[in-house]
Design goal:
Layout: E1 6-12, E2 15-22, E3 30-34, H1 45-51, E4 56-60, H2 76-90, E5 95-100, H3 102-113, E6 118-124, H4 135-145, H5 151-158, H6 165-175, H7 199-211, H8 213-217, E7 225-230, H9 237-244, E8 250-255, H10 262-265, H11 269-289
Parallel strand pairs: 3-4, 3-5, 5-6, 6-7, 7-8
Antiparallel strand pairs: 1-2, 2-4
Helix pairs in contact: 2-3, 5-6
Length: 290
């Protein structure tokens, strides 16, 4: 039976961030999960279930969607500051930060800004940190998969300046199967909520790509970095490899016949890789103490 989960709240700019924590054994290292999007409701409870017992785990709803604050501020740096506020509220001076998709990209930005708060960081199927991170190829790959019968409606929704939540769901459902290695066996799309102001985060992401923020700063980050990526993901794995090449202590885990959601497509895989990370960190700590 898994560890019980309970709510926590972190004070941040504009209100509170609301999340959920489950404490493991006293020796279990703390791990903070960052969900993707940007602008999606939190969805990482199944990943927390897979990692239960390996870590003391926390996850939270990013700003913009209830129950967390919906105050203005969607820039990457604001999201990074929210991570700091969450770690402070949890009482974790250092943690392993584990992000999926946009959350994995956010983990990279957090690493270059606050490496002192990290024991290690993990990005699962993220946009990379070099060039445009594979963003243009990612969009092109997804768009090319949309069924011909859906394409006019898909393009209509994507062109809207302020689509409704229902329109966003409709658009996502058209591409959802193609996030998986075998679209025919993709599970139903979850009922996400959306942040209408998440476009500000995308603008900020692109600004950092143009400024080469990660490309310039990641080479100075020495803490262990694990990138777990499906070879059948719509986000090009070559971009992840390019990112790992500039980080001194990075390791890429390539998952054959897996798309964007490895804990769904191949349960246990993420846990196995992070068990290896925990063992490596413990061995390094023991070596330093001898």
């Amino acid at each position: 039976m898994g560890h019980a989960e309970r709510e926590f709240r972190a004070r941040t700019d504009g209100g509170e961030i609301v999340g959920w924590r489950r404490d493991g054994e006293p020796t279990a290292p703390p791990a903070l999960l960052l969900h993707g999007g940007p602008g999606l409701s939190e969805y990482l409870e199944p990943l927390a279930d897979e990692l239960d017992g390996l870590f003391s785990i926390a996850r939270y709803q990013q700003r913009g969607i209830a129950p967390s604050t919906q105050a203005d501020g969607r820039e990457v740096d604001r999201h990074v500051a929210d991570v700091v506020d969450v770690l402070d509220a949890l009482g974790w001076p250092r943690a392993i930060v584990i992000g999926h998709s946009w959350g994995g990209h956010l983990a990279m930005h957090f690493a270059v800004a606050h490496a002192d708060r990290l024991a290690a960081f993990v990005s699962i199927d993220p946009l990379g940190g070099v060039g445009d991170g594979g963003l243009a190829s990612f969009i092109e790959r997804l768009d090319s998969q949309v069924a011909a019968s859906d394409l006019p409606r898909y393009r209509e929704i994507e062109a809207l300046e302020k689509p409704t939540d229902d329109e966003r769901r409709e658009s996502l459902q058209m591409v959802w199967p193609y996030y998986f290695a075998d679209p025919a066996t993709a599970p139903p799309c979850p009922h996400f909520s959306f942040d209408a102001k998440s476009g500000g985060t995308w603008q900020s992401i692109n600004h950092h790509f143009e400024a080469r923020t990660l490309e310039r700063a990641l080479p100075q980050v020495a803490v262990p970095f694990v990138l777990i990526h499906g070879e059948r993901s719509p986000i090009p794995i070559d971009e992840v490899v390019r990112t790992a090449d500039v980080v001194p202590n990075a390791r890429v885990v390539r998952l054959a016949d897996v798309g964007h959601w490895p804990w769904i497509e191949r349960p246990g895989t993420v846990r196995a890789e992070l068990s290896r990370l925990v063992n490596d960190l413990r061995a390094e700590a023991q070596s330093l103490n001898e």
